[in-house]
Amino acid sequence: MPRRLHQKRKNHRPKIGLFILIIILLTISGIYIEHIRNQHSAVEKAASAKLTHSPDTTAAQIVEPKDAVSARIEQALVEKNFSGTILIFRHGQIILNKAYGWKNQAKRIQNTVDTQYCIGSVQKGQTAYLIMQAVKAGKLRLNEKLSTFFPQIPNSKNISIKDMLNMSSGLRIDEKRIGALKTTDTKEILNETIRQTTVAQDAGYSYQPVNYVLLAGILEKLYQTDYNTLFDKIIKVPMKLNETSFYSEKNTNQTLSYSLSAAGPIYTPTAASSYADELGTGNVFMSAKDLYTYLQALFNDQFLTNPERTKLWYAYPGEKYASGLYNMTNSYHTRGVKARFETVADFSKDGQDGVLLLSNVWNQPKGYNNLAGQLYKIVATNT
């Protein structure tokens, strides 16, 4: 009996060994398959990341007219002897992004799609965005009073942040007195603005840039840093705006501006202090592509949710202006004019269609405001 048992156990040993070997081989195979899957996944993720970031990291590209609509628009610009950059988008796709005219006529350098233009008062919308980010961070409320920050300004206890965003605060200032300072020291400009600010009895809508200079000052108080640094940290870097800067005569990416005469475009230098006066209101330069990227970001929940946009862009009854934008019937409109630069943007309320026109030659009696509106109508209605 013991011998039989011993033989039986001996006969099972090869089977047990084979079973163990199979388990080992299956385990090794599983590990290898998982390794291959991980490698494949890593490659896919890397490719996805490259596709996701490539539009932000590559230089802006010329987009020739892609259809009859964009071809018609280009023809209209050529007929107007347009100098600057145009960017048209339709159904969320850029159908025209092209530059015309001289960036530096004396040196025979032409404008390109990455040329930067002063956007003037379009910057007010960016200051308003910074205010909304402060609200999101719990640093501020839209109904908070101006007196919290600058109690020395008349009637400040009755003026809210939202009133200032909508330019319905009654605040006024003699801008010539600020210009007379001829300084680039923003602290001096802000302090003098506070000293010179008065208030009108009628607090209805009135386009007064002083509102946004003071909003810039409030932001500096809230964050304990200068406006330019805050702009770069909260707008430029997160939105990956690589063709955006503040005025600098040494920045060769910024185009010169010209006025038109019988002899052709004439360049007249603008003092650095004139740009510095526009604290929070009009001293930013952008390419058309960066302006497009910024406007698209405003419709991205990562930057503004729909309720936040609604609050920020809400215009008071009977008024149209709010936070740097004019709330039109079926679109938004913003415009900036500074030192012979003109920037106009008209875009749909879902951000899918739009016309961005950035010019460095003032060659129309009333600028390009009406033309931009006509071009937007072509884009929006395809007529």
UniProtKB/TrEMBL annotation:
Keyword Cytoplasm belongs to the record: no
Matching PANTHER family: BETA-LACTAMASE-RELATED, D-ALANYL-D-ALANINE-CARBOXYPEPTIDASE/ENDOPEPTIDASE AMPH
Transmembrane segments: 16-33
Keyword Transmembrane listed: yes
Ranges in coiled-coil conformation: none
Ranges for domain Beta-lactamase-related: 72-324
Name listed for the protein in its UniProt record: Serine hydrolase
Keywords for the protein's UniProt record, in alphabetical order: Hydrolase, Membrane, Transmembrane, Transmembrane helix
Organism: Candidatus Enterococcus murrayae
One GO molecular-function entry: hydrolase activity
Top-level lineage group: Bacteria
